[in-house]
């Protein structure tokens, strides 16, 4: 039964997301770090007319995009951030929801007066970015998901929902024990470097359960919003997915009338930006170029 629980979490954070007391090094010391109401930590670097907005996944932080910042800042403005309750950002709301995460990101984008944006979201942030897009659609020229939004709009049955509820109970009783085993058993490829595994597992275990658990609960309810919002995307849905992860495209065909396209990355688990950074950057470059050339 525990394997079923873990599979449900994997499905949420892959297909549909904590404060880390041991932050990892930055790309460069010259990065400008600032805060914006409501106190989200972010870094904005680079040059160019297009801004790449990188939003991280569940229980990690913006520093996971370090190698993408280094690769793309000569040609684009690059924004990374820590979602509320993650990395260096404090909690900004009493209630943890995907919608509140998105509101924080929108507030930051508006404060920085960014436009010609390509949204790039890993894991749960595919859903966060759908909500961001709703509020700033006129500023967005591209939408890229990283190992997410592969099976969309699926409403869980009662049979599926029950073990998920039980899993939330187990996480509340023994968060560190349960989440550590989940990360180690389900999120990596056999080729994943041990240092990458250790980094992710440490971030999961050290995350704040008061942020991590409600985030999953909110994410589990986003299926109806996927059905509502994906057809309203005025840009194609572009996905970078891990090997064998896209096996059924029927929901993408149903909910993406403006099209979708995906690139598969081999020999990577759920974190291709740090597991296979060179290949991931190559594919991301293709997706960014595709986004800029595709007009509706």
Describe this protein's structure:
The chain has a single domain (2-293), classed as Alpha/Beta hydrolase fold, catalytic domain (Rossmann fold, 3-Layer(aba) Sandwich). It has twelve helices and eight strands. Strands 1-2-4-3-5-6-7-8 form an eight-stranded mixed sheet, with helices on both faces. The protein has 296 residues and is α/β, with parallel strands linked by helices. Helices cover 45% and strands 16% of the residues. The protein has helices at residues 2-15, 66-72, 98-111, 125-136, 158-173, 175-186, 194-206, 209-219, 223-229, 250-255, 272-275, 277-293, and strands at 33-36, 40-46, 51-55, 77-81, 117-122, 140-146, 237-242, 260-265.
CATH A-level architecture: 3-Layer(aba) Sandwich
Which residues form runs of ≥5 with pLDDT under 50? 1-8, 17-33
Arithmetic mean pLDDT = 87
Major pleated sheet: 8 strands, mixed
Q: Widest sheet: strand order?
A: 1-2-4-3-5-6-7-8
Query: How many DSSP E strands?
Result: 8
- Strand fraction band? 15-25%
Rg from Cα: 18 Å
| Overall SS class | alpha/beta
Order of helices and strands: HEEEHEHEHEHHHHHEHEHH
Categorize the overall geometry.
Answer: globular
Number of domains: 1
Q: If helices are DSSP runs of H or I spanning 4 or more residues, what is the number of helices?
A: 12
